[in-house]
Amino acid sequence: MTKQEIEKMLMENLGLKKEPIALAPLRDFPPDVPRYEGQAMPGLCVQMNEILENGSVFYSTKENHACFEGLIGTGVCEIDREEYRNAVQGFIDMCPYHRDMNTAMDFYETCVREIPLPKVEYSCLLSGPLSKVADPNLVIMFCNPKQADILVRSQSYQGTLVKGFGGNGGCLFNIRHAFVSRQMTFSTSDFPWRTFVGLDDSELTVTFPYEKLVESAPHIQPIIDYVDNLKQVFGTA
Length: 237
Description:
The chain is built from nine helices and seven strands, in the order H-E-H-E-H-H-H-E-E-H-E-H-E-H-E-H. It has helices at residues 3-13, 44-54, 69-72, 81-89, 101-114, 145-156, 171-181, 191-197, 210-233, and strands at residues 21-26, 58-60, 124-129, 138-143, 163-166, 185-189, 204-209. The two termini are 28 Å apart.
């Protein structure tokens, strides 16, 4: 299936309310795409909201982000343990992030073990609607639990165990894991991600490496049909 056919199926047949977003880390700055203007506060989550609202396409670097997790997760930049600690110290007293700094750093080490940091080998991150990004690396979708289940089943149908996450982090779970493992994932994410992206209370985030979405695409429509027929049989449609 072509990218256009996949997107049409996701929007019209699966019924996504928000257009999928594509991310593509690049080694060179794209000459035909504008650079993001200013600094997103906190970071990629706000930029995603702008994409959903305006259909924007842009590339960004570390200078365009106050929070670097989206760039860290796609191999555009890195941050060491002390830089992370300093960042957490700046807001740990303002929100229920962790009970203390020792807990925060233990959580950091756990996440590095479970979701390794990618090698830094890119100059910038290209972001935009799936329809406008020619060569996507990751595809991010915002969907309800029924839709997420259908997408997960499209991988489990092929024998792949899909891992989901919850905890403190949006880019960590929704971007870094999929980018590093090249496996689909889903997540409740956390309240900053949900707030700044602009998610409804009923929405989850699902992320596919693009090659995995292409692999799953032929199986999604039959699963949609099965689920809808099952709901009719049991009178829950």
